[in-house]
Design brief:
CATH superfamily: NCX, central ion-binding region
CATH architecture: Up-down Bundle
Number of strands: 4
Order of helices and strands: HHHHEHEHHHHHHEHEHH
CATH topology: A middle domain of Talin 1
Length: 358
């Protein structure tokens, strides 16, 4: 029964997010927001609402490990799994705005989580700071888009254009219905996750980092993969980067405010999971920078790293004898080899750009 309720909660969650994204995307298209900004804000925030509701409800119910694990796990999954899978399907072109503005903001947000969590919790004051950040970020993107007077000309936005009052009313109903389904689905998902963790003898943190994170990220998976197949690469990449920023600033911020005593940050999370989330964000910059493109081989590398990360945390949580060997191989072989490869790519890109200017 626990698995059934968990699965039903997940289905309701995804359905709610889908309804919310459709309604919000149509409403956004009427004000002339560009496809990239739609991806970074409306679509990204809409697909991240499952994370928001799950983390807030977990915080209110004094389940900080699920709340924090959901955010960190989702951010790692968004880049390594979703971007990786999307790039394997179709190599993704990356907008200059994402490289120059949004990825650096994602990196700064990740570092902030590490710094503010050093005292052992994300307090209500930290939550207010994060929430103010998402308001400022969203306002800036909308202002910038309106300033450029970018008209919604691509297929994705045209599909969601509003035509008449009847359609407008339907969109408002979709948004309201989506929010209602998200609340219901979040409750069932959190309760099911806690029961599963108890039954399997796994910590709530591991469940939050894996099962819950994967479940709440399904809307991002569907949106980015479909967008990449349809050639809407700005939306595919913008959805992931925007979702990661939203997860930290809005999800963690509102959850920190909602939690009675803030969100406790375990020492193991400070030592490993948050640094991994930060490293993944930093790794985006050189990969995006080299040719403004995420190639198929880079997508495969992302997928390989996500498999390695998930394998490690499961081995570590179960005290498996192979955990130390696996960690040794990752730290002393795989990670250095990847760092060298990225460094070579960046140097080649810089030289190529200099020759172009010459």
């Amino acid at each position: 029964m626990t698995l059934i309720f968990f699965a039903i909660g997940l289905i309701i969650l995804v359905a709610g997010a889908e309804a919310l994204v459709r309604g919000a995307s149509r409403l956004a298209s009427t004000v002339g927001i560009s496809p990239l900004v739609v991806g970074l804000t409306v679509v990204a925030f809409g697909t991240s609402t499952p994370e928001l509701f799950v983390s807030v409800i977990a915080s209110v119910n004094d389940k900080p490990d699920i709340s924090l694990g959901n955010v960190i796990g989702s951010n790692i999954l968004n880049v390594l799994f979703i971007l990786g899978l999307s790039a394997v399907i179709v190599p993704l072109a990356v907008s200059r705005q994402i490289i120059r503005l949004d990825v650096p903001i994602m990196i700064i947000c990740s570092v902030l989580v590490l710094l503010l969590g050093l005292d052992g919790s994300i307090s209500r004051t930290d939550g207010v700071l994060f929430t103010a950040g998402i308001v400022a970020y969203t306002a800036f993107l909308i202002w910038q888009s309106r300033k450029e007077k970018a008209a919604p000309s691509d297929e994705f936005v045209r599909e969601y254009e509003v035509k008449g009052r009847k359609t407008l009313l339907i969109d408002i109903v979709l948004v309201a219905a989506g929010l209602g389904l998200l609340v219901l689905g979040s409750r069932w998902l959190v309760n099911g996750a806690v029961m599963i963790a108890t039954y399997l003898g796994l910590s709530e943190l591991i469940i939050g980092l894996t099962i819950v994170a994967m479940g709440t990220s399904l809307p991002e998976v569907a949106t980015s993969v479909i967008a990449s197949i349809r050639g809407e690469r700005d939306i595919a990449v913008g959805n992931v980067v925007g979702s990661n920023i939203f997860n930290i600033l809005a999800v963690l911020g509102i959850s920190g405010i909602a939690a009675p005593d803030g969100i406790a940050v375990a020492e193991s999370v400070l030592r490993f999971d948050i640094p991994v989330m930060t490293a993944v964000a930093v790794a985006c910059l050189p990969i995006f920078f080299t040719g403004n493109m995420i190639a198929r081989w880079e997508g495969k590398l992302f997928l390989l790293y996500y498999a390695a990360y998930t394998t490690y945390i499961v081995l570590d949580s179960t005290d498996h004898y192979f955990e130390r060997t696996f960690a040794f191989g990752m730290i002393w072989f795989v990670i250095p080899l990847t760092a060298i490869t990225l460094a070579v790519l960046v140097i080649r890109s810089i030289r190529r750009n200099r020759k172009g200017y010459a």
